[in-house]
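Good morning C.,

I know you're traveling, so I'll keep this short. The sequence:
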Amino acid sequence: MTEKKIDQSSLKSKGFLPQRQEDLFSMRLRVVGGRVNAEELRKIADAAEKYGQGYIHITSRQQIEIPFVKLEDAEEASCELEKKEVFGGSSGKRVRAVVACQGNEVCRYGLIDCQKLARNIDEKYFGAAVPKKLKIAITGCPSACVRPQDNDFGIMGTTKPEILEENCVGCGRCEKACKMEAITIRDNKAKIDREKCILCGACITACRKESLKSEKTGYTIFVGGRAGRQPKYGKKLIELANEEQVFLILEKTLEYYRKEGLEGERLGDLFERLGIQKYREEVLL
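The tokens, ready to paste straight into the viewer:
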């Protein structure tokens, strides 16, 4: 057994997580939105062969970890990858890496550019100190592939459909496309039940007569969710916000969390303790 003293805090700050085996660590790497380019993959593969056991693990939050890194190699592995512009991931009481789907850049259902938004948020907030941890997820549409409602701060692309009745011929394509049964055809015209509509835009895509258009596209924000042993569903904070509002609300959320949160308290637990109304008033001014 090595005699080198383990500084757990320092190792965690560089993305090293202790394994069940003594003096062995999984090296977590910083991945934004699940996207890693080919050159980065080559560098990570080389590191996995040199410092680990020749394989990597892809986590449930789109992160890459190199298991079985020895304690005595941790510093060298970290420095070598940093020189190649591959950086350690976040752990401990910090803002974690942003997870995101491919958004409208790739997915035909995507309503927003998830990858660009993820990069911008990561650049500004990754690794920032918080009372416990803060996880952020961005999904391109209400299909919610990356489950934003299960995160401390979730962002979902949404769009509000508007019917142009003069163009509608009552063909029923939009009615069939709506999985929420929010659209019905009455008197040969499409009608939207706003209470049932989840702002997915499927009806707009299905329309061939230009009788449905997007009145507004934006971001729906959920807060206070989490997975784990005691999962909680996030609360819907605002619908169809613009990008400027997203960053303003996120900034105010972090300020509120740091000011009111107890050491080791998740954001959702803070809402349960103090109620969510005070938070709403502070971040939605």
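Safe travels,
E.
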